[in-house]
Design a protein that fits this description.
The chain has a 6-stranded mixed β-sheet with strand order 2-4-1-5-6-7, with helices on both faces. Strands 3-9-8 form a 3-stranded mixed β-sheet, with helices on both faces. The chain contains 14 helices and 12 strands. α2 packs parallel to α13 and α4 runs antiparallel to α5. The chain is of the alpha/beta class.
């Protein structure tokens, strides 16, 4: 299963340019609003140096990285919640993704038209936040109309759902995001089917034209109505250039620019953190392969990522951290040293575990 990150923002902030860079594909990135009308989906390999090292150790025939999907979504404008621009399509596409990556334009360029006539990152962020809130408020009010009738009949699920929706309504009317609402365990259980835009995890990319050493935007955006605490600074144009290079050339270019890593790597790391994901590995002569699961997953659930039958028939797992396996020089020596552990159904899989399920 691949996780989806929706790239959103106002028109002409660099969404499609960033998407092209991330996926090395060529969707239209024109200098006018709504160049992206239908969703563009790109499946991206997650960089993981551990795989190559384990593949070399095991003489694996192939390396199979885990993946993450990026979705380039049509630009949003003020009034989208009421259908302005491509608002309805934009909002329906956001509902389908696991997390939102909002691109905030900081760069000035008179040749690239801003939909509002001038660059103002704080205003742009507020525009998107307010449109998402208004769309959620409409959704919540519609759901409440239905749930109220059912709650009157004494249906427990409807009663709890009504409580949750009323909490959400209050927060949205105050101009708050739904993700800030505190719910009890029971309320969480009964509200899993309430899919709201402002409840999705969100990351922010600040798109500036190679002024990546500038720090003032971070402090400016931390003072806005919807503050960014940890923006990811990128230059989407440079990311596009990097995407065209070989691995060796890319490393050299990054060194010339004085950057420790590409913006893509930063985005993927932040995506994993935001979604609460980890990677475990299976390694052998046939292949060394990375798998994604949610942090806190127990061994049977992780086994189910490989095949549903593995979860149903789970007996035990043999586990070793990837670096210990390298240090030992392979499974045989690691077993002789007693470094390979046998774990049962309650074992919580850790990032970097090399696992053999039995």
């Amino acid at each position: 299963m691949s996780f989806q990150i929706g790239i959103v923002g106002l028109p002409n902030v660099g969404k499609s340019t960033l998407f092209n860079a991330i996926t090395k594909s060529k969707v239209e990135a024109a200098n006018y609003p709504f160049a992206t009308i239908d969703r563009n989906v790109g499946v991206v390999a997650v960089p993981d140096d551990r795989l190559a090292k384990l593949a070399k150790l095991e003489n694996s025939e192939k390396i199979v990285p885990t993946t993450i999907e990026f979705v380039d979504i049509a630009g949003l404008v003020k009034g989208a919640s009421e259908g302005a621009g491509l608002g309805n399509k934009f909002l329906s596409h956001i509902r389908e993704v696991d997390a939102i990556l909002e691109v905030v334009r900081v760069f000035e360029n008179k040749d690239i038209i801003h939909v509002n006539g001038n660059v103002d990152p704080s205003r742009d962020m507020e525009t998107i936040a307010i449109e998402l809130q208004l769309a959620d408020l409409q959704n919540v009010e519609n759901r409440l109309t239905t749930v109220n009738k059912m709650a009157k009949s004494g249906d427990r699920d409807a009663i709890v759902k009504k409580q949750v929706l009323e909490k959400y309504k209050t927060a949205l009317e105050k101009g708050e995001m739904v993700r800030s609402v505190q719910l009890s365990d029971e309320e969480r259980e009964h509200s899993k089917d309430i899919i709201l835009l402002t409840n999705k995890p969100i990351m922010y990319v600040v798109n500036d034209e190679f002024n990546l050493e500038k720090k003032q935007f971070a402090s400016e955006l931390s003072q806005t109505k919807f503050p960014i605490s940890n923006p990811i600074p990128i230059d989407a144009k440079i990311e596009s250039e990097l995407a065209e290079l070989s691995d060796e050339e890319r490393t050299e270019y990054l060194k010339e620019l004085g950057l420790p890593e590409s913006g893509l790597n930063k985005i993927i790391k932040e995506a994993y953190k935001t979604l609460g994901l980890i990677t475990f590995i299976t390694a052998g002569p046939k292949e060394s392969k990375a798998w994604t699961c949610t942090a806190g997953s127990k061994a049977p659930q992780a086994a189910g990522k490989i095949h549903s039958d593995f979860e149903k028939g789970f007996i035990r797992a043999e586990v070793i951290q990837w670096d210990k396996l390298l240090e030992a020089g392979g499974y045989g020596p690691a077993r002789n040293k007693g470094w390979i552990r046998t774990e049962g159904k309650n074992y919580i899989v850790q990032d970097g575990d090399v696992v053999h399920f039995l």
